[in-house]
Input
Amino acid sequence: MTAHHPNLKTLIVDDNQFMISLTKNILKKLEIAPPLEACDGATALQRLDGAAVDVVVCDLNMPGMDGIEFLRHLANRDKRPAVILSSGEAKGVLETAARLGRAHGLRILGTVPKPMTREPLEALLEKLVTGEEATPRPTSARLTPEEIRRGLQGDAVELVFQPKVSVSDREVVGVETLLRWNDPVRGPISPNAVVPVAEECGLINDLTEAVFRKAMVQCGAWRAEGLDFKVAVNVSLDNLDQLDFPEFIVATAEAAGVDPSSLMLEVTESRLMDDITAPLEILTRLRMKGVGLSIDDYGTGASTMQQLKRIPFTELMIDREFVAGATDDDEARTMLISAVRLGKDLDLTVVAEGVETEAEWDLVASLGVDVVQGYYVAKPMPAEALQGWLHDWRGERN
Output
């Protein structure tokens, strides 16, 4: 590691004492404090009840509560350490477990095949101590409908923005608007604990409108400062049953001094649209008004091909899952190539999400991806930080 971190608190979860000893020896060589130990998931949860832990190194196949079940229980906790998965199972099983952990909302740093070796574990731990874990992570405990109503009235909605950069000339072509929820009682709350509840209890329209109004005010302020790029906002499928939704979008944008052609609405293919009639009318009318439409998290939903065939999308966003590992995994690369080719064949702007390394940038660039978004470019940031970041990105600061 570039710097030793003796205060890093670790927990090893494994039923094989030899593997525990091997991992402990590696941590000792990295000058990390002696870890806690657990022989299965249930014991690990007990350890977490009694001690603060930064990262769990977890096996998959264990008697009692195995690693997969442990991830599910860990995801239900307010305080959740980062996770490194290590197993002797086939690579596909290990990667699937990592995807499952991320789907639970856990911070999965990566995977290490057994037997454990120093270099990959060292790299993942360095990723932890230099990444966003340096700041408190929002809790994922779901809000109640009443808490959401109170938060909407009390202005709990906050926004951050992540730049989207053209591959060909590295120019900033847009930003994605991302929700942050600052509960007056609980503090920062993960969007994953807010949006599903809002959809279930009929508050998603109020939430989307609050986000969109704030995004347009900020977009108008950027226009006044001479910054001209597209602003993307996520919309739920549940927003697409309001037949006056296009009028709201256009009127709100124009009131803030934003042309509809500067907007991109990102629709996540989270589930199949049971009744396509209203959504198809709404999305088609939005396109007629000049609003761009993006299919977000491409490849992670059940209705990919149907959505692309039915709806006049202008942009395809390839999910991080298909970018991660594609530099050295033939199967992941094949799926990434297929997604890019499909987007190109349909004449869509192809965006690669979650690009974190120069190698990933080089790969997606070689495949013909148009736009990149991810930590390699920039983390999501408050609006007031964007100008400074732009100067740095463009090399305009001394």
Summary: The first helix runs from residue 17 to 29. The chain has two domains: 10-134, 145-393.
